[in-house]
Amino acid sequence: MTGFSLNDLERIVAERARSGDPSSWTAKLFTQGMERAAKKLGEEAVETVIAAVKGDKKDLVSESADLLYHWLVVLAVAGVPLSDVLAELEKRTGQSGIAEKASRS
Fold it and tell me: Which residues contact 70 (CB under 8 A, 6 or more apart)?
């Protein structure tokens, strides 16, 4: 099992975003802003769904990695730390998903 975590990836995204390296995809996404970063997230979400529906586990793993990366880029561009999302998820574990969803109405 790997010791790599989403926290590690969040740190790498932040470092590369600030690098200004013209060969860095992350730096390029940051420069292009939220609209471009969010569009890439959407594209990766669709590709992940397609891989899941096809039952292609190898592609599902690959597309999921792309999805998580682009999700963290969008969070970073928005200035939202991963810890905020994890805290929200932790808060939701104390109730059923049905009750939580109903409370949003």
Answer: 37, 40, 41, 44
